[in-house]
Every structure is written in structure tokens, then in C-alpha cells.
Amino acid sequence: MEKEHLKIFDECRNQLGVATREEVHRIGYWHEAFHCWFVSEEQGTNYIYLQLRSDTKKDYPNLFDITAAGHLLANETVQDGVREIKEEVGIDVPFQELVPLGVIDYCVIRENFIDRELANVFLYKSDKTFDDFILQEEEVSGIVKVELNDFIDLWLGERETIKLKGFKINIDRNKILIDEYVGKSEFVPHQISFYKTVIKKIKEHIK
Question: Which CATH superfamily, name and number, covers 5-203?
Fold first, then answer.
């Protein structure tokens, strides 16, 4: 995976060339990603779905994150990004059913790891149930949902914890129910401004 080749860009989104994934995160090149947030309406309440990253992931293991997301490879278009949804959570979603939320850039810098992403962000209005998700277990170990308003309140600083419900796959490949309260520390540390921008754009498309 570290040898995957990604397109790299400057701060003005001009393509500079191609680099390996390892180089991208070591040197800190801007690169493209595909993000898809699932939302649903159930009995008049809007929910947002989150994945639980596998505890074997090199980056951000065992933290909650975007429903499905990943890098766009050097030979891929944005439309090809739908493969991430199928690969990670096992659901076929036609690209034309996605609601585009724009390209959002963000940067996270940790020791020996620089993540500068140009994220092509999409919304999927889903009617799926938990039984429909088939997880790529080396990448994703669980799926949960949370009331959208609670998720918004968490990132706007209006509440400390939110209640998640869903499931995870344990080491014996059994499905274990999740029903717990979590705070921001249990999420991938995208910038707060990134979460706020995503929230603003989702709200524009949700009744």
C-alpha cells in the first residue's frame, strides 16, 4: 500500500506529478482523496453513519471516521472513488446517486506523518440497514450511526459526548453490538474546521 502512486499538487491545486503514498505522507504533498458520508432518515430523525477503523490500521487505528473514504490513485478519476464504498463497507453506490459537497482541503501533521488532503466529499442518502454492510475487516471493523443533530452539536462544542449504535466485528469474526457514548477523542483527528465545513454542507442538503 505504501507503494501506491498518487497525484501530488501544490497549494493552488496545480498538479506537480506523481509520488508514492509513503513519499506523500513523509514529505507532505497535497493529494486527492474520496470521502462519502452516509445519512438516513428514520421515523423523522436524521442519522449519520460512521465507520470504526480497524485496530490493525497504520494510521488512526480503532477510531471513528467518515463512512467510507480513501486515496484516489494516480490513474483514477473522482468517479472511480466509489470503489472505496464497495471495498470498505460492501455497498454498491452508483456515482450519480451521490450528492457532491465540493473539494475540502485539510492538513494534519503528526510525528513523521503529514496528511495534506484535497478531499472530494460526497453525501449519500441511504436506505440501508446494518445488515447490508459487509466490512473489509483489515480496513474497517465496525459501523455505527448517530443522530445527525447530536453529531453536529459535538463538533460545534455544544455537547461533550454523543451516543453511537451499531456493530463491530471481533477477533473471532463475530458481530458485537455497539451502544455507547463517545467524545471527540474517539474520532480521527481531522481539523475541527473540516468537520464544521462538512456539517454546513450536509445541512444544506438535509430537510
Answer: Nucleoside Triphosphate Pyrophosphohydrolase (3.90.79.10)
List the domain boundaries for the chain.
5-203
List own/partner pairs for 52-60 with CB under 8 A and 24 or more apart.
52/140, 52/141, 52/142, 52/143, 52/144, 52/166, 52/168, 52/178, 53/139, 53/140, 53/141, 53/188, 54/137, 54/138, 54/139, 54/140, 54/141, 55/141, 56/138, 57/139, 59/113, 59/115, 60/188, 60/189
Q: Which residues, at least 6 apart from 185, have a Cβ–Cβ distance to it below 8 Å? A: none
Q: CB of 52 within 8 A of CB of 170?
A: no
Structure confidence at residue 117 as a pLDDT band (50, 70, 90)? very high
pLDDT tens column, 130-177? 999 999 999 999 999 999 999 999 999 999 999 999 999 998 889 999
Query: In sequence order, which residues have a C-beta less than 8 Å from that of residue 6 and are 6 or more positions away?
Result: 18, 19, 20, 21, 24, 29, 31, 32, 71, 72, 73, 74
Containing H/E element for 100?
strand 99-110
114, burial (CB in 10 Å: exposed 0-12, middle 13-18, buried 19+): middle
Q: How many residues does the chain have?
A: 207
Q: How far apart are CA 143 and CA 109, in angstroms?
A: 27
**And the C-alpha cell for 53?**
477503523
